[in-house]
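Data availability excerpt. The first of two example chains:
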Amino acid sequence: MLKNKWLYAGLFIFLFPFFLLINLNDNASEIANQNTNLEDVSNAEMEKVIELNPDIFPMRIALANRYFEEFNYSSALPHFMHVAQNSEDLELKSLALAQIGWMVHDSGDTLTSLNYIEEALAISPESLLAKTYLGIILIQQEETRKEGYEILTFLKTDPTLSNEDLEIIQEILSIYEN
């Protein structure tokens, strides 16, 4: 009888780590499957989640950026404003302020838009988005064209700039080269 107990104990000690490893792998794959890809979530679903959890800032930014890209500024603005006023994450706050600044610029109020963008830069001085918006706005004005040109020219050398953004900056610079 004692012999069988040692056999069972040995089998248990030998097999337990194996079953534990299998269980951990299964749990990890289940957790990975539970992560939500926001590309698969509709705007209405995101709005509902945000309504129930108003301080879920990354999702607010994702939704606001969707609206922004659709030029649906009236839907984007409340989300960007909420993040700018309530988030303690300085990068998200800066991004929200820069986006608000661009929307205000698109509405024709350059002075107010510059205030938002400068506030975004005060919070995050290295913000590529805010610097790009500032350069684009300044290059469009005769009295600040040189400053805008210098900002955009400097941004062209930033290795973190995406190819798409680089092409946009180069296109803008080519318009104002003379």
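And the second chain:
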Amino acid sequence: MSFTGGSDTPAARGTARYGYLRELGIDVWVPRGGRGGGRRPEPSDSADSATRQDATGAKAEPAAKPEPAASPEPAATFDIRGFRIGGVLALIDASLWPHRRFFLDVVLAMNGWRGDRREDVRFEWPQLLSADGGEDAAGRAFRAFVAAQSGDDGRILAVGKTVEGLLGEEPPGAVLAIERVVDGADRRDLWRRVRNLP
């Protein structure tokens, strides 16, 4: 027996809980045969109700659904991974990252086959604190990142169309751009380009 002043049965507690949720504006749905004796849920007074009844009980016209707000253009998202060995910075589109061993050989060739210490770098967009997620802001941020990572006299290996596009017209150093892993005659051409890079 309870001395709280009201009934303390599971049905009463459930009804009180549903009443509380309804007061918060949350629709309460009770399955048939479950709690509440199989009653149907009471629809809320939200604006998305399909039909309404006026004071006489006649059904009114369905409420017009509001037009969805025009969503802004989706922000550019990308992940650029890379590494720096000596004076060479490799920037690789994440989709080509599984082939990094090939690109490591290219970077070593660009560095005169000196095996300096390797430092990994990564650039992801959008960044947490960026106010503007557009492609112009992404390009500016990426170019600032590259300038900070490559130094004044650095060479850059740009792998993938995304990386090449983000570097823009005036990259901060000599750039060797590769769109994909190459083989055969294309590989010989690549090594020729490495030797002729300023």
